[in-house]
Amino acid sequence: MEEVDHLAHERSKAQFDGDAMKVVWAGSKHALDVADRMARLVASDPVFRKDNRPMLARKELFKNTLRKAAHAWKRINELHLTEEEASMLRVFVDEPSYVDLHWGMFVPAIKGQGTDEQQKKWLPLAYKMQIIGCYAQTELGHGSNVQGLETTATFDPKTDEFIIHSPTLTSSKWWPGGLGKVSTHAVVYARLITEGKDYGVHGFIVQLRSLDDHSPLPGITIGDIGTKFGNGAYNTMDNGVLQFDHVCIPRNQMLMRVSQVTREGKYIVSDVPRQLVYGTMVYVRQTIVSDASKALSRAVCIAVRYSAVRRQFGSQDGGPETQVIDYKTQQSRLFPLLASAYAFRFVGEWLKWLYADVTQRLQANDFSTLPEAHACTAGLKSLTTSATADGIEECRKLCGGHGYLCSSGLPELFAVYVPACTYEGDNVVLLLQVARFLMKTVSQLGSGKQPVGTTAYMGRAQHLMQYKCDVCGAEDWLKPSVILEAFEARAVRLAVNCAQNISKAPSPEEGFSELSADLVEAAVAHCQLIVVSKFIEKVQQDIPGRGVKEQLQILCNIYALSVLHKHLGDFLVTGCITPRQGSLANDQLRSLYSQIRPNAVALVDAFNYTDHYLGSVLGCYDGNVYPKLEEEAWKDPLNDSVVPDGYHEYVRPVLKQKFRVSRL
Ligand SMILES: Cc1cc2nc3c(=O)[nH]c(=O)nc-3n(C[C@H](O)[C@H](O)[C@H](O)COP(=O)(O)OP(=O)(O)OC[C@H]3O[C@@H](n4cnc5c(N)ncnc54)[C@H](O)[C@@H]3O)c2cc1C
């Protein structure tokens, strides 16, 4: 195929240093270097080919995933990759598999909940992949309500063992990734029963399959839960079902960092604080926010490049038609998503810092910021994954009909991404947790207890309840302090309104339940404020590179003002801004879209994604879309023969009228 860069003209229009922006996106020069090397390593290895994925039947697809996972592990060892390089390599292999749960959930669960002794025993095996683990919490009957789990772990002092049992159909473990066909071990969550008393849900390490022939151990029934949404997509993962019939495990396989059962069967809470467990949750959710920015940026990269290539209408005297990226409606849908991808990238980066801060504080027995950090990560997980899932679908629509083809990469990206709104906590359930925390914070405002971290602004509630936005012209909306105060006032007022309405209910619980839809909106407002404020903080730092800071400033303003525009109702009903000020914000937004337009392609180039990772003929770097679309079409198995299988049985008889037609 000819080697012409069809987007060269777009690239030449950029008003900033693209290499410097790549460093900002990656987080550092070192991170960029690692990501770049790993992406190229994967892209150049034929085993990691993925363009045929949507066409493979489930069994073939799954076997191919196993092959890739094994090959990745081989390469990691052969090349002596560091932990950082290995995890990047897995990112670019870009195929959900048991490996994700092994490294992402099983290992952190043991690290977070295991004693030193348990860590010493299990982690080396896991690190060398001599055992493969998964995270078995959710059951057929209960997911969000973890306290409702039914699997039991009953201590038997006679044998010094726990008996793990699934007493009902609904207690079957259902959904854990990697469980269905691969994992040899699992961290299983079960109700701990000892001395006849139920102590609630605890984690246990349970071996599931023989390390010799992979057959399930006695008392264990195990399998895959079935095909999931989309072609390819998450069907590479063996989400599993698991039932226990009185399976015995040694007592020391209960994860005993925060509580223990003694040889005699006494339940004791250790002096290690329970809150430590939350540290793991902060870690896992921080990675989910990072993944959101990756998924959204991929979709946006495809939609921006294709929108610059695609032309429709507007041709005068036989001249070229208009690039669809130049339509204002296209810009008003696309550029807020581009800005969101950057916003989520920076909030994800900040969450990494937060995790380090929480870990340090936990080590010093300082738990003061933990509830706030916990609420903040729960909220950001919910906000970023919902916006990303919606954003990928919007990008598909932005690519018109061709976006619906698997070769655009968007259908599979959507299908593989949407469950992020559900796993690691259903997004609505998480927002309700955030709302509960906000209500508690509001109730303590008069007590002198100062709100911390991302809720610190609530300490200025009195001022924010009185606040009047002083925007007089569209350019006033470019001031970070103006944007911040408007978002703070909206968040505080929505929260305080909810608290006041709850106080009128017969009981706080009834009030909370009645107002839950409003509470979710208050929680969203709080989380959007966090994203806006972290973007502003980022832009206020020293950022090297010609024009880089200016572009980020524009993106930051686009993010904030597009959120404001979308939620204008909130800002107006809470009286934070006037209708005129809302309209000025919209004027400013239009101007910002025009400013970002010449830089759009270069801004997605800064993600530094290889064509392999993007997996999209519409988003390919050189923009040579049409020949690639055609090439992909001819690769479809349906085109293997010109006359389709089935013609003689089912098409010819219709054409030749060989059916007995009764009435005609
Ligand atoms: C692809 C995928 C991978 C997964 N991987 C794993 C894994 O590795 N290990 C594991 O243990 N689990 C896993 N899960 C399970 C996942 O964690 C649960 O599905 C998730 O926690 C949601 O729980 P649920 O399915 O019970 O939803 P439900 O709680 O039944 O939610 C159903 C609906 O009810 C609403 N709802 C529920 N409670 C409330 C409430 N209190 N107030 C208002 N609305 C409410 C929800 O918003 C939702 O709309 C996975 C799930 C998926 C889809």
UniProtKB/TrEMBL annotation:
Its cofactor is FAD. Gene3D superfamilies: Acyl-CoA dehydrogenase/oxidase, N-terminal domain, Butyryl-CoA Dehydrogenase, subunit A, domain 2, Butyryl-CoA Dehydrogenase, subunit A, domain 3. The active site is at E424. This is Acyl-coenzyme A oxidase. One of its GO terms (cellular component) is peroxisome. Residues 278-439 form the Acyl-CoA oxidase C-alpha1 domain. Residues 19-132 form the Acyl-coenzyme A oxidase N-terminal domain. Belongs to the acyl-CoA oxidase family. Residues 480-656 form the Acyl-CoA oxidase C-terminal domain. Keywords: FAD, Fatty acid metabolism, Flavoprotein, Lipid metabolism, Oxidoreductase, Peroxisome. It holds the Pfam family ACOX_C_alpha1. Its main location: other. InterPro entries: ACOX_C_alpha1, Acyl-CoA_ox_N, Acyl-CoA_Oxase/DH_mid-dom, Acyl-CoA_Oxase/DH_mid-dom_sf, Acyl-CoA_oxidase, Acyl-CoA_oxidase_C, AcylCo_DH-like_C, AcylCoA_DH/ox_N_sf. Residues 134-245 form the Acyl-CoA oxidase/dehydrogenase middle domain. It comes from Phoenix dactylifera. FAD binds at T138, G177.
